[in-house]
């Protein structure tokens, strides 16, 4: 029996889908691919940073010059955690607009 995906399932699948559509055969993405994803999918996060190179240095925890899914997921979770209040306000404004 098919059921509709929950909101969080959709969110997780979107996160995985963005990564998977960019990953290479080694299951990782390059710095260039990572920066393209950031520009296209998370422009608000990029706007906040002074030095874009630092974003990559921060996400590439094992310093292999590539981003694996674990590093990518940690970045997104960290972004949500650090910007909890802003995201909450943004979502509530969007909900108001939708009414
Ligand atoms: Ca890495």
Mean pLDDT: 90
Write the H/E string, N to C.
Answer: HEHHHEHH
Task: Specify the helix fraction band.
Answer: 55-70%
Looking at CATH, the homologous superfamily is: EF-hand
Q: Overall 3D geometry? A: globular
CATH topology: Recoverin, domain 1
From the 3D coordinates, which CATH architecture would you assign?
Answer: Orthogonal Bundle
Strand content: 5-15%
Largest sheet: spatial strand order: 1-2
| Name of the level-1 CATH class | Mainly Alpha
Poorly predicted spans: none
The radius of gyration over CA amounts to 15 Å
Main beta-sheet strand count, sense and barrel state? 2 strands, antiparallel
Give the class from helix and strand content and strand pairing: mainly alpha
Overview of the structural elements:
The N and C termini lie far apart (32 Å). A two-stranded antiparallel ribbon has the order 1-2. It has a single domain (7-98), classed as Orthogonal Bundle (Recoverin, domain 1). The protein has helices at residues 7-20, 31-41, 43-48, 52-59, 69-82, 84-98, and strands spanning 28-30, 66-68. Helix content is 69%, strand content 6%. With 99 residues, it is mostly helical. The chain is built from 6 helices and 2 strands, in the order αβαααβαα. The structure holds calcium ion. Residues 60, 62, 64, 66-68, 71 line the site of calcium ion.
């Amino acid at each position: 029996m098919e059921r509709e995906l929950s909101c969080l399932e959709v969110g997780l699948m979107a996160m995985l889908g963005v990564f998977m559509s960019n990953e290479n055969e080694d299951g990782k993405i390059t710095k260039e691919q990572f920066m393209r994803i950031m520009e296209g999918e998370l422009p608000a996060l990029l706007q906040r940073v002074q030095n874009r190179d630092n974003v990559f240095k921060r996400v590439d925890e094992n310093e292999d010059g590539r981003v694996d899914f674990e590093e990518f997921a940690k970045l997104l979770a960290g972004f949500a955690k650090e910007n909890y209040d802003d995201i909450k306000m943004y979502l509530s404004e969007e909900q108001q607009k939708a009414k």
